[in-house]
Design a protein that fits this description.
The chain is mainly α. The protein has one domain (about 5-455). It has helices at about 5-35, 40-75, 80-110, 110-115, 125-145, 145-160, 165-190, 195-215, 230-270, 275-310, 315-340, 345-350, 355-370, 375-385, 390-415, 420-464. The protein is globular, with a radius of gyration of 22 Å.
């Protein structure tokens, strides 16, 4: 981590992580694709609605995973293995417990949550047509909540210790199984939307088992119940390292719920209809998140390098890794944005070949593709600040894209321009998030240069 050439090290850690992120995104895209084969736009809209709740479950998994993983990375860099072992157990078991709480709360309030996710009110004329699909899909997803959160902890702890291959193996195996099981449960067993959800949680459980085996068989820090000591010190460190991820993922979930409400209300008043508006925005979100998954995976491959070297006070290497990741990921996003922009209607039609759904999604997706390369600076800056324990600026960046900008702009633009305003909101939010990331990242680089000078002075004083 502290000696290998940066380009090779970044690629070695990033490629498996990129694959993991793409595969994680693929889970939801596979369900959307197969559900889109049903002759029912309401079913596609329902799966998109539940996606926001799945994002919330994942948000807490990333909270405990990134919070514990960042700490483990720094402690291993500082040669403090005992503390790393205690944190590994704390992150895993706290995530498991929290997942059970989500499951119980979800079962108790299944119908109200389902209605909320679909942006439904008593006045909505199509409530009864969409709500049963949402409830059916959500019921099975809730069963998987405990090990969904715990899986993300295992994945991130492996990754932060530089063992991205095992992390990739666990996630990838689950996705491959999901692709195989979806048509079996949905069509062979005639379970429809419920079958898609059941296939997802079975696949994710298989991935969880493989990840746990990977932790036990690799040379990484092991998960031991005797090390589970959630004292204030460790909980504080989890919060400090994981809160930016909770902001990023949690606000993304809240933003999707708000998007569902807005699309439901303004879609019903538009020429496209409520179900088509929900489905169009849902499919666009899935495709763009799949495109962004590569960037997030690249940033997560950069994080352990950043954490190890920052803990070892090798600040110049942190800056070098950031520059390399920025140039490479920015170039890839530019190349990726071109075909996505050209073939937008065809891509949306793959998931739901409905002219209204395609029309709603096309403008929204093309605008997001135009600003997609800007996300490289924002995402990598966020990852760097989080991995180095700079919780406040990392949380600001994490909250900016979906929270500080997207949610208020969504309702403001919708009030001005209706459904068109909803379609342009994410692109505008991405530009504003990029602008706020510039000063926060540059300030951190100045801080590292100052710390490097102070360390050199200390060494000179000791040698003198």
């Amino acid at each position: 981590m502290t000696q290998s050439p940066i380009p090779g090290l970044v690629l070695r850690l990033s490629v498996p992580t990129i694959i993991s992120m793409l595969v994680t995104s693929l889970y939801n895209m596979v369900d959307t694709y197969y559900v889109g084969m049903m002759e029912n736009t309401n079913a596609t809209a329902a799966v998109g609605a539940v996606f926001s709740f799945m994002s919330l479950i994942q948000a807490f998994g990333f909270f405990f995973g990134h919070g514990s993983g960042n700490y483990i990375s720094r402690k291993l860099g500082a040669k403090e293995g005992d503390k790393a072992g205690t944190m590994a157990a704390n992150g895993f078991f706290l995530a498991l417990i929290f997942g059970f709480l989500i499951m119980i709360a979800g079962f108790l309030f299944l119908t109200p949550i389902s209605a909320m996710l679909g942006g439904m009110t008593e006045q909505a004329g199509e409530v009864d047509e969409i709500l049963p699909y949402i409830e059916s899909y959500l019921f099975y997803i809730l069963i998987g909540a405990p090990y969904m959160t715990a899986s993300l902890v295992l994945n991130n702890q492996l990754r932060f210790q530089g063992n991205a291959f095992y992390a990739m193996l666990g996630i990838t195996s689950g996705a491959v199984l999901n692709v195989a099981l979806d048509p079996v449960f949905m069509f062979a067993f005639d379970m429809g939307v419920a079958g898609a959800a059941l296939a997802t949680i079975i696949s994710q459980f298989a991935g969880f088992v493989i990840l746990y085996i990977g932790v036990e068989r690799s040379g990484n820090v092991k998960i031991r119940l005797r090390n589970f000591r959630p004292t204030g010190e460790y909980v504080k460190e989890i919060c400090r390292g994981g809160f930016p991820s909770l902001c990023r993922q949690g606000l993304a979930s809240v933003a999707t719920i708000c998007l569902n409400f807005a699309a439901s209300a303004y879609g019903a008043a538009s020429e496209y209809g409520r179900a088509a508006a929900l489905a169009g925005m849902s499919v666009t979100t899935r495709i763009m998140q799949f495109a962004s998954a590569a960037l997030i995976g690249f940033g997560q491959g950069f994080q352990p390098i950043c954490g190890f070297n920052y803990g070892a006070k090798n600040y110049k290497r942190v800056s070098e890794a950031f520059r390399f990741c920025l140039y490479l990921s920015g170039g890839v996003l530019i190349v990726l944005a071109v075909p996505l922009t050209i073939f937008t209607p065809q891509l949306i039609a793959l998931f739901r070949d409905d002219p209204n759904v395609v029309a709603v999604g096309t403008l929204c997706m093309r605008l997001q593709c135009v600003v997609l390369p800007l996300n490289a600076w924002h995402t990598l800056s966020n990852m760097m600040l989080q991995a180095t324990g700079n919780a406040l600026p990392a949380s600001i960046l994490a909250a900016s894209r979906q929270g500080l900008f997207f949610i208020p702009l969504l309702f403001f633009f919708a009030g001005l321009w209706g459904l068109t305003g909803i379609q342009i909101t994410q692109a505008v939010s991405d530009v504003l998030s990029f602008l706020i990331a510039i000063p926060l990242a540059l300030s951190f680089f100045r801080k590292m240069r100052r710390m490097e000078r102070e360390d050199k002075k200390s060494v000179s004083a000791l040698n003198g």
